[in-house]
Amino acid sequence: MQVCRVHPRSIAIVMAWPMASLAQTHEFEVRVTPFNQIFPALDLSQGLRPRGALRADGDASVIGEGSGLVAVRLIAARDNENVQLDIDGAPWLAAPTHFAATLAQQGHSYELRPAFAWNARELVAQSRREHIALDVRVQRDGQAAPVRRVAVDLRPLNEALYYVRDGRDSVDLAWIFAAFVNERDSVVDAVLDAAQESGIVEKFNGYADNDADRVLRQAWAIWHALDQRGIHYSGADPGIDRGPRVYSQRVRFLADTWADRSANCIDGSALLASALQRIGLRSFLVLVPGHAFVGFYTDSDAQHAAYLETTLLGRELPPLRELPAYAAGVSSSAHSASLASFDAALRAGTARQARVAKKLDGHHQPDYVVIDIATARELGIRPIAVSKTAQTIATGR
């Protein structure tokens, strides 16, 4: 297995091709990564790549705009050979994939990576693993070719693949969680409208005041909106696969969390991070064994951070005896419940971060990971926006 750059700024996993050589005929190989399983979230979270880029090891030309999670390898039978790749996966594809390429050099190995047009209606409705078949056909210089059927497992859209192990090789894919943070989701509009109505802040202006207490106050207003909505922590286990080769878990989209008023640790962290990002506060997810919490910088230089333990969402706690500095001037009893849980979440998050700080050094992955949302966006990881009413999916592509 190898890590392969499939976009100038995004990363995915790509399994190595079998060692067997291909004859320079109509033979071709189909690879579905990982282990004949397709995770749509992994594909949809990445932008399209430029065509014609060479593979990282320089061994073969890579052609196509797709993620490489489904790829076809073949050897050019002649210089400037014209090939057409057709892939159908009805009903999971909105339309069959038609991909044409020219293989420049005879005897050279090429890898075709087509981009898929997913059927949003089917993906949004899918709630469990499905066994499907991809029909693959490769035509060379217009000659008819038989269809090869490839059996694969299609995973639900809300399943995040975060780690893959193949023998001694492994790939950390924890950045996939950034795809479930969506600062432009309509749910964030609802959160910020409710936060604004609370009167805790006059406006959301990020770091404009250059005051850490003002930053904390904005975060509290968002927390208050979630508290008023009745969102509470759910201890339901989101884990789906825990190895030995594939590690994945379910992450609910923001609309599901908002509608159901319940969130496990990663759901709540993704929702908070989405709202914080929207108002200009740089946020990040912190993953530790079996748990996640959210952090954000309290200054524009990203030198100081605060952490929130989202298991305290919806928790009823005694009112604070003394108002913290960030809450000065807000004395309404309507805010006392959210202030108590927010302050407790701050203290609990800070304590947890202090306990694991030494392992958040980039050398203890995938058990201990910090996913900076702004950095993930720079790497090409885009939010997956889902509308179950319209049964549509929007990405950064």
Task: Explain the overall architecture.
- The chain has 397 residues and is α+β, with helices and mostly antiparallel strands.
- It has 2 domains: 2-157, Sandwich (Immunoglobulin-like), CATH 2.60.40; 174-394, no CATH class.
- Helices cover 22% and strands 29% of the residues.
- It contains 8 helices and 23 strands.
- The chain has helices at residues 40-44, 120-125, 186-197, 212-229, 254-260, 265-278, 336-356, 373-378; strands spanning 2-7, 10-14, 29-32, 37-38, 61-63, 70-75, 81-88, 97-103, 109-112, 130-140, 148-154, 159-166, 169-172, 232-233, 239-242, 246-250, 262-263, 283-288, 291-297, 305-308, 369-372, 385-387, 392-394.
- The strands form 7 sheets. It has a 5-stranded mixed sheet. It has a 4-stranded mixed sheet with strand order 3-6-9-5, with no helix packed on it. The protein has a 4-stranded antiparallel sheet with strand order 13-12-16-15.
- α3 packs across α4, α3 crosses α6 and α4 (212-229) crosses α7.
- It is elongated.
- The two termini are 27 Å apart.
